[in-house]
Amino acid sequence: GSTNWIPCETHLKNTPAQLSENMRLDLVLKRLERKSNEILAQLKSKNGDRKKTFYQSLAKTLGGKVNGASFEHLIQLLDFRWFAKVNYDPLKIDALIFGLAGFLEQDANSEYQKRLKEEFSHLKHLFRLQPMSFTNWKYSRMRPNGYPDIRLAQLSAIFQMNIPISNVKMSKSTQSPLKNLTLNEFWKDHYHFNKETKVKSYQLSKGLIDSININTIAPYQFAMGKLLQQQKQKNEVVESLGLIAPEKNSIIKKWKELRINVNSSFDSQALIELKNEMCENKKCLFCDIGKTILKT
Predict the structure, then answer these.
(1) Which of 128, 137, 191, 265 is geometrically suited to a Cys-Cys bond with 148, CB 3.0 to 4.6 A?
(2) Distance of alpha carbon 79 from alpha carbon 122, whole angstroms
(3) 3-state SS of the chain?
(4) Residue 71 to residues 78, 179, 203: CA-CA distances in angstroms?
(5) pLDDT of residue 168
(6) Measuring CA to CA, which residue among 40, 6, 32 is closest to residue 224?
(7) Which residue, among 170, 166, 131, has the nearest Cα to 152 in the 3D structure?
(8) What is the pLDDT of residue 64?
(9) Alpha-carbon span 151 to 172, nearest angstrom
């Protein structure tokens, strides 16, 4: 009936099948084409500013479904030249990020926040800043480690590393330069400005680093490959997806229940594309599994 998750669900439960390597590659390339075209459109709207384009995508990934748009908006307000003007001073960059995001309009509940407020009142005047409204930030339906406070602190720490974006390559989470961030001590026992927690790690989780690789670095690198007509760079992106762990989400969980192999983010990206672009539109005749079933 029409209640099936995908048209061939019942069939798959009885007769396991897998997608060919060719079909998975085709799906991954379609997905990368679409996502890299979005990056190239952003690049054009930002007059070719690669740094801003890259970080807007990264910030959106850090913000996730709930706060992604607010993170993107924050990047639009940022001028990356400010970081050099404050000599990449960690406290000043924290103040810029939290201040612009609207987090320093409230009363300070800690020594750290008080220092950020003082720094920001000076920077706000210096750079003539117009902060966002704090009401843009949402906290509903999320774990504390996804709160915007800690995620903005992590974003600030990434800016403080000042990695040239031309050096940003996909890498396993264990080798990623993003796995060793330095945040203010305050974040060792806070996810939120006003709530203390027990001491924990303030690093990006392995899953989040994988997500940045899949959703930001891969499409960005692929877009640069297209822009510079470097087929080799595009191929490297596809190969790298095979080294990164698959995402965990409701779509992938469902494919696994149907006994479809998901060994890497190459597989998971192919399967997300399959579900959203083909199964949803009943394009069964263009699918390995669909064709096999319809032949029988």
Answers:
(1) 137
(2) 16
(3) CCCCCCCCHHHHHHCCCCCCHHHHHHHHHHHHHHHHHHHHHHHHHCCCCHHHHHHHHHHHHHHHHHHHHHHHHHHHHCCCHHHHHCCCCHHHHHHHHHHHCCCCCCCCCCHHHHHHHHHHHHHHHHHCCCCCCHHHCCCCCCCHHHCHHHHHHHHHHHHHHCCCHHHCCCCCCCCCHHHCCCCCHHHHCEEECCEECCCCCCCCCHHHHHHHHHHHHHHHHHHHHHHCCCHHHHHHHHHHHCCCCCCCCHHHHHHHHCCCCCCCHHHHHHHHHHHHHHHCCCCHHHCHHHHHHHHC
(4) 11, 20, 19
(5) 85
(6) 40
(7) 131
(8) 94
(9) 21
In sequence order, what are the residues at sequence separation of 6 or more whose Cβ sits closer than 8 angstroms to the Cβ of residue 112?
184, 186
Token duo for residue 21 = 């390597």
Q: Which residues does the chain have with pLDDT short of 70?
A: 1-2
Least Cα distance to 178 among 220, 149, 209, 146 occurs for 209
Task: Evaluate the CA torsion angle 23, 39, 78, 103 in order and state its sign.
Answer: negative
With beta carbons less than 8 A apart as the criterion, state whether 102 and 134 touch: yes
HSE at residue 81, side-chain half, CA atoms within 13 A, is 2
pLDDT for the residue numbered 74: 98
Residue of 273, 282, 281 lying closest to 19 (CA atoms): 273
